[in-house]
Each structure stands twice: as C-alpha cells, then as structure tokens.
Amino acid sequence: MDPSASYGFAAAAAALLLLLAATPAATAHAGGGWEEAHATFYGDETGAETMQGACGYGNLFEQGYGLSTTALSSALFNDGWSCGACYEVQCHDSSYCKPGGAPVTVTATNSCPANYSKPNDNWCNPPLRHFDLSKPMFLRLVTDFHVGIIPVRYRRVPCVKDGGVRFQMVGNRWWFAVLVYNVAGAGDVSAVAVKGSKDGRWTDMNRNWGQIWDGDSRLFGQGLSFRVTTSDGRAIVFDDVVPPTWTAGQNFVSKQQFVD
C-alpha cells in the first residue's frame, strides 16, 4: 500500500502534508465534528485485495462488510483497536470531487502501515490521518480515480449492521481464540470476557491482534458465553452463544446487537 508512486503532484502533496500535520487529533467516538484527512484507494473494483488484512477479518463479503471498507493509517489504526469502527468520508476542497459531494460510510478492516524508511510522501506515516479506501468507495467520491489522492473530511459514525454480533472460533487445539465481528454501534471492541458452561466463571480475554481475542485452552469442549464491551463503554452478555460441540473455523451468530 504505497499510494504515493507515480502521482506527479509533489508540490500539492507537500502543502497537504503540512496542513494535515497541524490539524487536531481524530475524534474518538461517533457524534463528533468533521476532521481533515486525505484518501487514496487500493485494489481494483472487485475488492479482492481488501480481503483478510490486519484486523483479522476474512472474506469481507461473507462477513457482511462487502466493499464499504477502508484501511487506516497508523495514527487512526491505533495498533488495531480501531478495527470495526465506522467513518463517514467526504471528498473536500478538490476539483476532482464529484458534484454534490456525497460522503461514503466505511468500516475499518485493515491497516495502511507506516514506512519509516520513506519519511516523505508516505501518507500512512504518523501523525497523518489517511484512509486507503476500497476502489469502489473511492470511485464514489471522485470524478476521475487517476487523481490518486484527495483531501477529505471524516467523522466517526455509528455502525449499522445486519443481524446480531458474530463469533468465529479461529484458534486450534492448542490455541483458544475468537474473532468478534459484525458489531454495530461504536463498532470497535475494547474488551471481551468468556465464561465456560462447566466452570461458570468469567475470564477476561486478551486481544491478540486486530479483533482476534484469545483465552484459556481449558475452555475447549465447553459451551461459551461472551461479554463484549465496545469503545463507548457499552457491554452486552451473549449467553450460551457457542455450543459445547464447537470446533475451530465455525461461525456463530447471536440474536443481540449494539443498537440504540
């Protein structure tokens, strides 16, 4: 993801870098005002290159995210804690913005990593805030995708998801782990606890990377309940959402969701 290659607009890029470095920190939760950033795209119209990624998600179509996704620069990605958060992104102050300037709403599913060996013209290096959008989302913002990079405004917005919160058992016989996804509301999960049907006690899980959380292997062979807390402090208990017969690779859909 090095979107700066062959863009051929060094002077404008330098001016934009200075502007963004001077702007305040990103809004933490939905409901805040607009902030300044910039955006590019990666992959093609199919979105194939946006699958998998640094948040631990897999097939984004099967998991409900589709093409409405973005990778975040280091300053926004926050070491993976922002995975699942939703943003409204709008082309701003560019002759390439589509008439009307309608924004797109995207979920953070990947990281646009910093490249410290290239301190100049790397849009994902801190402290810059950057959205590396799927190409279909970028095309909705601009009149010509060949522009490569555009100034944007962004803000956190509540995530809207179909169905309940989902749990995918992603570990193996030696590693107990779960991917928590399809989370509405704040979208980004800040804490997970698990309770086995046999021992009946809650245990905090550790975030391994992205939105993959791991715990004690003693939970194999037990039915599982999860307590999920999002970054706005809201918590839901998902009782007996995973049966004792679960195996790694299985997905389980709850009947509960973070909705207002």
TrEMBL record:
Single Gene Ontology BP annotation: plant-type cell wall organization
Domain Expansin-like CBD, first and last residues per copy: 174-254
Protein name according to UniProt: Expansin
Function: Causes loosening and extension of plant cell walls by disrupting non-covalent bonding between cellulose microfibrils and matrix glucans. No enzymatic activity has been found.
Keyword Membrane belongs to the record: yes
InterPro entries given in the database record: Expan_Lol_pI, Expansin, Expansin/allergen_DPBB_dom, Expansin_CBD, Expansin_CBD_sf, RlpA-like_DPBB, RlpA-like_sf
Domain of life of the native organism: Eukaryota
Keyword Transferase among UniProt keywords: no
Family, as annotated: Belongs to the expansin family. Expansin A subfamily.
